[in-house]
Every structure is written in C-alpha cells, then in structure tokens.
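agent: user wants the full assembly modeled, not chains individually. Plan: 1) parse entity lines 2) check alphabet per entity 3) run joint structure prediction 4) return tokens. Steps 1-2 passed, two entities, 882 residues total. Proceeding.
--- entities ---
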Amino acid sequence: MAHIDTRLSRRAALKGIAGLVLGVYLPGGSARAQSGAAQILRADGTAASFAPHAFVRIGIDDTVTVLIKHIEFGQGPFTGLSTIVAEELDADWSKVRAEHAPSNAELYKNLAFGMQGTGGSTAIANSYEQMRKAGAAARAMLVEAAAQAWKVPATEITVDRGVLRHANSGKQGRFGQFAEAAAKLPVPDNPQLKDPTKFRLIGREGAVKKLDVPGKTNGTAQFTIDIREPGLLTVVVARPPRFGGKVASFDAAEARAIPGVVDVKQVPSGVAVYADSMWPALKGREKLSVNWDESAAEKRSSEQLIEEYRALSRGPGTVARQHGDAAGTLARADKVIEAEFVFPYLAHAPMEPLDGYLRWDGEKVLARLGSQLQTGDHQTIAAVLGLKPEQVQLETMLAGGSFGRRAQVSMHLAAELASVAKAIGPNRPVKLVWTREDDLRGGNYRPLFVHRLRGAVRDGRIVAWANTVVGQSFVKGTPLEGMLVKDGVDPTTVEGASEIPYEIADFRCDVHTPNVGVPVLWWRSVGHTHTGYAVECFVDELLERAGQDPVSGRLAMMGKAPRAAGVLRAVAELARWSGPGPTNGRARGVAVVESFNTYVAQIAEVSAGNGDGPKVHKVWCAVDCGVAVNPDVIRAQMEGGIGFGLGHVLFAEVALDEGRPVPANFDSYRSLRIHEMPQVEVTIVHSSEKPTGVGEPGVPPIGPAVANALARLGHNRPRRLPVVRGVV
Amino acid sequence: MAAFKVKVNGEVHTVDVLPDTPLLWVLRDAIGLTGTKFGCGIAMCGACTVFHSGKPLRSCAFPISALGDGEITTIEGLSGREAAAVQRAWIARDVPQCGYCQSGQVMSAVALLKEVKRPTDNDIDQAMNGNICRCATYVRIRAAIKDAARTLGA
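--- prediction returned ---
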C-alpha cells in the first residue's frame, strides 16, 4: 500500500515514505535514452528502482516534480525549466514542484558545456528542447496508459491541466491515477511537441507563479548555512592576508582555550578552526597567531597595477579582431579622439557568503552546497579525499546569490571543504562558513581593466576605432586555458569589445594579458562588465562629436545588427526618446549591449544628485531573449541586473594596498540600497527565436547609460569607476 | 560560558553560550531558528533583522548578555495582520530572487507598516535602506509594501 505524502521530498521518498513516481529519462539521444525505461519508486523503499536520472516524476498524489539540473540562486531556473516541462505535459501548475537534480555529469550536463554547471546565462537556452521533450514524453506515456486502461485510441485522449479525458466515452482521470501504469511503458524517442501557438504557460503573462517564492518569504527556504545536525562542526579558516601567501607557522593555544572550539588544523588554504557553533569558531580564529610566508605573495597596489596597465595600453597588444586599417586612418585623421577607462577589481558579494557541508565515513561522501559547477566540485571533493567520483554524492542547495562567485575555475571552495573534512578525519561532519570579510578579501574578483580607445570622425561618421584592452584572463594558467584561449586571446576578456554592433570601416581590438597574483573570476556578465561600458561610452562620445543623436546615430551604424537595433528602437519608443536633454536638470543616456545572445537596451534618466553621486531616477529597458518563457522572471532579471550593475558602477571597488584588499565588509564595499534604486520599466521584444538567458544581460548597459546621461549634464563620462570613490 | 534565558516567539529558551555571543548565533545555532540570516556580522545589511519587543533589531551585532527581558520575534514567529499582508504581497509580486535577504526585508517591512499605515516613498526609503538585497529586488519590495498597505487599509 502506498502512503501519499504531498510534501514528499526525494530524500524522504528514498527513506520509504513515498508514493509511486514516474520517471522519464531523456538525455538527448544517447544510447541510454533508447533503453531508458520509466522508473518506479515504491513506498516501502525495498522495491525502489528510482533512478536519479529523471527530469520528471509524477506521484500518485498528482504532484509533478521537475528535477532541475541548474542551480537556483534567484535567476529562476526552478520556475523556468518547470514551465517548459509543464507546458508540454499539460500539467496543473498548482501541482508542479521543482528540486535540484543530483550531481551526475552524464545525465545532467549543461548541453552548452558538456559538464553539469550553470553560467553564461545558458540555463534556459541549453535546456529548452530537452525539457520540452521530457514533458512531452511523460505526457505521451500517461496518455498511452489511460488509453490502455480505457481501451480507447490514444489519439482520442486530450489532456488539460493535469486531467486526461476521453470525450466519446466520458472517461476522465488525473495524472496520479496513471502514474504507476505509465511508468511501465517505454519512453518515446521523439514525442510530438506542441505547436508554439498553442502554448498556455510559455510566454503567457501571469500563467505561472515562481515555485521558490513562498519558502523565501517565511524563512523556511533551506540554504547551505542552515544545515544542522547533531555533532556538526562549524569551520572557519584563517587565510593569508595577501594572495599567494602561505602558512609559515601558527600557535593555536589561545584559540583552543575558547569554550566551544573543538580543534585547529592546518589545511592547504590556511588554518582551520573547528567549533561546535559559529561564534566560538570566529572567536577562536581571532585568537590564532599565524606567521605567514609572503615570499611569493602578490604585493602590488591597485594604483601600481593601474599605472602598469596604462603603460601597456599605449602599445599594441595581441589582435583579437581587426578589419580595414584603423592605425592608418587614425594616423591620417585631423583629430583623434582618445579615451582611457579604468575599471577596479570587484567582488561578487552574494548575500550568503560561501559555505559547504560535508559528511564522510572514509569511503562514502555526502556533500551539500550551492554548487554552480557540480561536475568540477564533485571531482575535486573526490580527488582531495582520495576517492572515486562514484563514492561522492553531491547535492545542490539553494544559494543566496552568486553572480559568478560559485562557479570557480579553481574549485577552491570544494577543495577547501574536502580539505577541512580530511584534516579532522572521517565521521566528523563539517560545515565550512566564510564570513563577509572572508568573502570580500578572498579574491576571485572581476579583474581590474584598463581600456584605451582611439577613434576618428569624418563628415558626421565614425570612420576608425581602435581599442586596446589590458587585464587578467579568467582562464590563463588554469585547465580551461587550452579549451578557451585562441591565438593568445582569452575571448572572455574581449567579448563585447572585439565585435561591436556598429559598422565602422577601420576597426581594431587588441589585448594585453598581464600576469598578476590576484585570483580572478567571471562576474555577472563576464567581459561585458567592462567592455559594455567602454564601448557604449566611447561610441556615444564619438557620436556627440559627430553631431549625431545617440539613438539615431547608433541606428545608422546597425544595419548588420538587426536584433540590437530592435531593442534600441523599442527602448526609445518606451521612453518616448526625444534626445538626451537635459530638461529641468535631468538628462538621458542610452546604451545597447548584446551578451550571451540576448539583446538589451536601456535609457537612464539622471540628475546630478545632492553630492553623493548622481541620482538615477528612472531606467527604461528593452530586452530580446528570443522566446520569452517567463515574462515576469525576465522583467525581474532586468530590474535586478540594473540594480546590481548600477550599484557597482556608482560605488564598488576592491582596492589593493600593497597586495592587501582594502574593503572588509559592507561598510567599506558599498552596495546599492533601496533609496538609490531607480524606477524600472521593461518591455520584452516579441521574438520566436530560440530562447536565450536573462540572468546576466541586464547588467552591462546601465553603467554606460548613466555615464552618457552624465555627459549631457556637463560632467564627463566617468573615466574611472566607481563613479563615487572614497565615500561609504 | 553562561546560561541565558531568552524568550523567542513566545517560548522561553535557556541557552549556555559565551556571553558576547550575538543574538543571531543564539537563534541559529543554539535554538535552531535558521530563518534569520547572517550577511555581514556588523549590522550593515539587515539580513539578521528580528523584533526586540516589537522593534526591529539587527541581531548579528547584539550580544545575548545585553538582551535583558526583551522578547524576540523572528521570521518563524511572525504573526498579525501586517505580517500576513506583507507576506501575501511578497508572493503576489514574486519579490524574492535568491531569497537570502528576504527574511530581513519582510521583518523590516512589517515593522514599517505597524508604525505607518500609508508609507510614502520616503518612509519606505527610511525604513528599508538598512536592508541590502544584492539581487536588487528593490523595485518589487517597494511595490509590495504599497500593496500591503492598501490591503491593510481596505
């Protein structure tokens, strides 16, 4: 007898309090797909043949559970991927649940990466067809099960909101009634997909509510930091004050004297303090006396790096892309317009600092963390503990933001988590927690960049453009270098600068990639965080010199960029653009940036403010992300991207003082607050192109849009970010 | 270590902790109420906001030894008209993204609506600018507070 628990979780299910579930396995045409049968999970657990390679489970209580291969940290894959499945399944949205899929590279790989992970705004883009097929296959199996039970042709059965009907016989039934029978049927290879004009969830306003919201309004949503169990040790690590430093020696006597401190161990990243709870761990760490070997540490200050980068930017770098003869045209020009932009190191500072849970018995590992690159984290944990990957089970937790921080090329968090577990030995479960200070001083920053741009204008047109980019590569010196770096150019350094949406006859973009001992990491919108600003400020400046309107001047050069032009036209219409102004002390600036195949244009209305930086009153935003799966999630990501981008452009910098990061916490790394958030109005450009992501593309245009407005208020476009420096 | 009595959500707990332990870690580690979040530890981000005798308090920088007789309310113990209206409005607007700061946001919003029935934009700025949301859900937080105020006035 099956006992039905509507609050069923997978873990609970495996413990044997479950109902019956249908699993559908569709890994996109591999051999296993052909043999992949539906799976049944029995209530008593003994006969459980649940395979954790399902995307869809249907319980006999009618619950439709979608397993999400991408981490949910606010960008919306729980809702987005579930919407796609529910659409093809014709499910009742009120019965749809989402949970993270386990770590399994073969089954849950990002089809854009070849391994399980989230980044580059790919969650919807790589999953769209896969999730449609998963939903359609489950629907076909339920229909076939009903057809067999009712002894009617499957083609005569309709499905609507979780109910199967046969009109002629008057029979009807819910999904749950057929879940067990359907689970015994073969999975169709090529299920019929819906005609998109028949969609009732995808692209429909108000059709779905986000699945993860209720638990995030009442404190019940579980993050890694919330994991509790008897005997769990809280671990904090003292790390070197400069990047590249190492432990020379340490004295833990005073730390061990703090009641609640259990142990102190050296680990590769520093000195780990183990305690029965967080406060003793923090007090113990304060009492540590560590001598650091800084002989190999990076000791340059930001100001020194900026001077070195500026010098490099005056000479040609490795060519990322060129056409025509930019150097020749610039040499012959009556006047060369030149602009240098300086971008600081930036921290991601997700609200939940890095953390992770790990329990092992010497052979089997359970790790739970907000893993953004599950395959890499999984392999790293196995390697550090000297185990095979199949001995490691990794569960992805909801994460309190990331903005790129949890997608580490170095896998340093997983390595540190496994290392602290290893150092204290098996059967001592650990929860590793970083503090805000650890986070802001922990490196993995958006790199410092200098851009030097030179351009020429003739007869009201931009005729030459040269851009030299200087900054650290995200992947140089990592295992990804061979895969990503082409002809000496890391494309993530120059994306958005090496190809611009404007037709300019003589064009060149080159790059210098200096070696600096500061660990760097992609940060929400990656290269576009700086290239978007530099390119959109400079094109605006050249158009101003050419006497062109910022919108029509751009459009005149965008003949080969129809979708970018489309969002620019759409935002101009939304904002009723009639020129940059200023009018009554407010000016408007515009910017348009394509990132990750999503096109976003923004217009910012700005005044000079009251001495604490400019005041951004309103932002209009147009986005083209192909098929808009969840319009309200798209709007939310544009709103959030604008706020995130604006806060950093206005206020944020991780300065280095002789190699030591200066900001320690939100008192010295200023974050945008509610009174600084502009009104936002978003329009989604209708498109039937393949869907693309929205997590990152809202970020790049806001900075240059604000800068271009400031230029019309009699200020220059800020050449060095953040705009408001030295003020907290 | 020392024993402290602390009344949380109507229930008295006796905890044995270091006297300077911030209330946040008493709630999370000693009592097991994890809805209140750690974001900065220096009362700069508001993720740890609870009510102390009905008034919002940043629990991360408030030592248990200073608590006295005050009663604590956390997100788990939130109740009343304002709380219901705020949480309904949060859901109706799909406010949260990552959700980590939202316990604190909800607590601050409820505190505001207990004091001010029809908050202006300026009232909202004053009451909410201690709560950082790195996802920048501020547009929806503002709209949801106004929605909640409207339903309370109806």
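agent: reporting back. The CA atoms of residues 26 and 137 of chain A lie 9 Å apart. The longest helix of chain A spans residues 123-150.
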